[in-house]
Amino acid sequence: MLEKGKISHRQLTVLSLLYTIGTSILIVPSIMSVFSRQDGWIACLVGVVADITIIFIYSALSSRYPKLSFVEYSEKILGKWLGKAVSLFFMSFIFLLSAFLLRVVGNFMTTHIMPNTPIEVTIILFILVVIYAVRLGLETTARAGEIFLPFVIVLFLFLTVFLLPQIKIDRIEPFLEEGFKPVILGAFYYFNLQEQVILLMLVPYSNRPDKARNALLVGTSIGSLIIIVTVLLSTLVLGTEFTQRNMYASYTLAKQISVGNFLQRVEAMLAILWLITIFFKTAVCMYALSLGTAQTLQLKDYRTLTLPFGLLLVFLSLIVYDNIVSFISFTPKVFSLYATIFMVIIPVLLLSIDTLRASLKKEQSS
Amino acid sequence: MLKYLGLLLASAIMILIEVPSLWKRKRIWDLWVFSTLLFFGIVLVMMRFLNLHIPNPVNGINEVLGPLAEAVFQNLKGGN
């Protein structure tokens, strides 16, 4: 057993909540309004339904092997070598995803908060904290999540309440102007930005893996609710066109807060909220990456891998996009299909192969 | 020059943190994996310092999945 720590049911819920909010709170409003225009919130809603459906598939898969992580049972199901190949393929996805997350942090900090600091510095400082969290283990990270969760909720409620006076309902009309197609497109892109499959690496280390489905469902639902509210507020306060033109629409949204010329410029609060959530998302990804690789290669300790992976991630996050244009053309369009391979195709294949084998075995024995 | 020194320092710190304890506990396979990854990291960062061309995985994914992604987008984007 590589990870000796145990996290409680509630800690798993908190981690999946923070993981779901993750990057999405900052980048989803703009993506949704580009592809689904004023119906972005419906697209999110459809995407959340898809997310919850896929969690049922994941939990069906993990309840067959409650003590094992995704990497371990892929080896059990597909046999040693094919299983290891699938695991390493899966790890490459997490690796690339972590590099994207780092780059998003770097991009945001250099364009909006600290424009004179080189992006390398931001990324290296961020990965150092993440590596530290990962080396301390899952238990510590989960407890930190419990401590930070109230901040996230309070900051979010604060932003929401002070934006309410500026809402204009007619900004989300006309309703379903171009039919359902753009909504489905937005929902597809939203669904694939969530990457809930990586949470399967944490499930065996919760103290009640049999109840893990509830934790994932509750965490994902609350997190998605926060994102839906953000998308809705962006459309209602900023309008569709303005949201489309802003890459980080919810940051611009927070700039709109102005209570009687007294309470202004509180956008840093949104940046804090987002840095907390993306920290947990990156930490979970990096944890899953190191632990999964260590399990695949049968190392004794996953901590050995964290430092070299950190170096590689910093390097990859710097070359992964040549510029912001390649980020925009890649992230929703191509990334969604790439993520579908790992979020839908591989888990569904594993589940069906395992069910098939189990039924074959039953027939033989009877 | 400073960046090479930085890289050297960073890898020295990583080696100091990991290698002695692995060596003491005779975990030769772990040591191999660690050194291979670190070697790759150092080589790639050096290549970036020297402005050599490094294949970008994103471009590969774009090549393979790009046409399909474009088809999905064109079919679902709606009128206008």
TrEMBL record, chain A:
It comes from the Bacteria. Pfam families: Spore_permease. Keywords: Germination, Membrane, Transmembrane, Transmembrane helix, Transport. Its main location: membrane. The chain crosses the membrane at residues 12-34, 40-61, 81-105, 117-135, 147-164, 184-203, 215-238, 268-289, 309-329, 335-353. Gene3D superfamilies: Amino acid/polyamine transporter I. It is found in: Membrane. Belongs to the amino acid-polyamine-organocation (APC) superfamily. Spore germination protein (SGP) (TC 2.A.3.9) family. This is Uncharacterized protein.
Automatic annotation (TrEMBL), chain B:
This is Uncharacterized protein. The chain crosses the membrane at residues 31-50. Keywords: Membrane, Transmembrane, Transmembrane helix. The keyword Transmembrane applies. It comes from the Bacteria. The lineage of its organism: Bacteria, Bacillati, Bacillota, Bacilli, Bacillales.
